[in-house]
Each structure stands twice: as C-alpha cells, then as structure tokens.
Amino acid sequence: MPSKSILRHVVMFGFKSHTSKSETAEIIQRFAKLRDTILEITAFEYGDNNSPEGLNNGLSHCFLLSFDSLAARDIYLSHQSHVEFADWVGKWVETVTVLDYWANENP
C-alpha cells in the first residue's frame, strides 16, 4: 500500500421493485448524512447507474466513501449511525454489494 493511498469503500444497491423515487431520495440523503456523524469518512459521493452495457446485475445506485486507514473504515462499519442506517435501509434494498480497495495511481 502506498503511503498516501486512500481506502475506498464502494457500496452498490439494487432496490426492491416497490421502492419509490421519494424513498430512494430519502435513502440517499440519510446515507450522505452519515458523514456528519462519522468523522472518519473523508469523502462521500453517489450516483445512479447509467451504463448502457447491461452488466449491473440489478444494482442501480453506487456510493463511494473514502477513508484514510483501515482503522477509520472499521470505526465507520461498527459506528452506531452506520449500523442503524444499514438496519433501516434493508426494507428497500433487494441486493447490496460492497467492495473495499486501496486506490492506486497509474503504475
């Protein structure tokens, strides 16, 4: 791992068919607000899938969180606000995929 590398935490959701646009908007808002209570999150961004390839396997939204260290990511994972959000959002999420990686610059 390079000394200035950033730990990326990728979360992708596929919502249940009954999830409305307003519910999706609230989910995004609540996910983004985790940054207000979990100070270890150094960056947060999100977007919905617009790939024409058709390889999203039912996943429609992507969230990218950044951390400075594994310890910071681990604090996020066990933080009460994150645990409560994960429990709450399950009502609307059909599929979730999570992938973490150290961001590397071009070799």
In angstroms, what separates the terminal alpha carbons? 13 Å
Which architecture does the CATH hierarchy give at level 2?
2-Layer Sandwich
What structural class results from the helix and strand content? alpha+beta
| SSE arrangement, N to C | EHEEHHE
Largest sheet: 4 strands, antiparallel
Helical fraction:
25-40%
Rg (CA only): 14 Å
What overall form do the CA principal axes indicate? globular
CATH class (first level) name: Alpha Beta
Q: Overall pLDDT, averaged?
A: 94
Q: Give me the number of helical elements.
A: 3
Remind me, CATH topology? Answer: Alpha-Beta Plaits
User: Looking across the biggest beta sheet, what order are the strands in?
Assistant: 2-3-1-4
* Low-pLDDT ranges: none
Give the tally of β-strands. Answer: 4
Strand fraction: 25-35%
If you had to describe this structure to a student in words, what would you say it looks like?
- The chain has 107 residues and is α+β, with helices and mostly antiparallel strands.
- The protein has one domain (6-103): Alpha-Beta Plaits (2-Layer Sandwich), CATH 3.30.70.100.
- Helices cover 34% and strands 32% of the residues.
- The protein contains three helices and four strands.
- The protein has helices spanning 21-37, 70-78, 80-89, and strands at 6-15, 43-48, 61-67, 93-103.
- Strands 2-3-1-4 form a four-stranded antiparallel sheet.
- Helix 1 packs antiparallel against helix 3.
- The mean pLDDT is 94.
